[in-house]
């Protein structure tokens, strides 16, 4: 089941490659996600190196997960805190290499479940220019007009 989709990601970026990652959540956060109380609108992925171990880690930043209402008040909870992503070492190394290249970024596309686990679909993407965005809008309008005329002709 899909819980959230980042609609602006495919409009703002050309998707080059996708990855699937697990996400570390607390119990009330899992309940909120399963209730679709999250937003990926301004979310992005940061890739850092752990200072003591030297291992590469990926974090989901600015993903807004609302507090679970039935869990009671939690004054220490921040809805947009960064959350660790679970990836294999090879995938992390590949993402780190892509993120260091000029013009490339890593953005989340969707949050969904695979079995009982909550997963995040990540994309290595290159930002679109303004004329690319206008072309996307133009194609979407043409497709909408064609669909409209086909419905009217039936």
Draw up the topology in text.
Layout: E1 2-5, H1 7-12, E2 13-23, H2 27-34, E3 38-39, E4 44-49, E5 56-61, E6 64-65, E7 83-86, H3 89-100, E8 104-114, E9 117-127, H4 130-153
Antiparallel strand pairs: 1-8, 2-7, 2-9, 3-6, 4-5, 5-7, 8-9
Major sheet strand order: 1-8-9-2-7-5-4
Using DSSP, what is the number of strands?
9
Total of DSSP H or I helical runs spanning 4+ residues: 4
Secondary-structure element pattern, one letter each: EHEHEEEEEHEEH
Mean pLDDT across the residues is 89
The CATH class, by name, is Mainly Beta
Helix percent reads 25-40%
Per CATH, the superfamily is Small protein B
* Count of all domains: 1
Main β sheet profile: 7 strands, antiparallel
Give the uncertain stretches in residue-range form.
none
- End-to-end separation: 33 Å
Q: What name does CATH use for the topology?
A: Small Protein B, Chain: A
Strand content: 35-45%
CATH architecture: Beta Barrel
- Radius of gyration from the alpha-carbon trace, in angstroms: 18 Å
Structural class: alpha+beta
So what's the overall shape? Answer: globular
Question: Can you describe this structure?
Answer:
- The structure is a single chain.
- The mean pLDDT is 89.
- The protein has a single domain (2-127), classed as Small protein B (Small Protein B, Chain: A), CATH 2.40.280.10.
- Strand 8 and strand 9 (117-127) form a beta hairpin.
- It contains 4 helices and 9 strands, in the order βαβαβββββαββα.
- Helices cover 32% and strands 37% of the residues.
- It has 154 residues and is an alpha+beta fold.
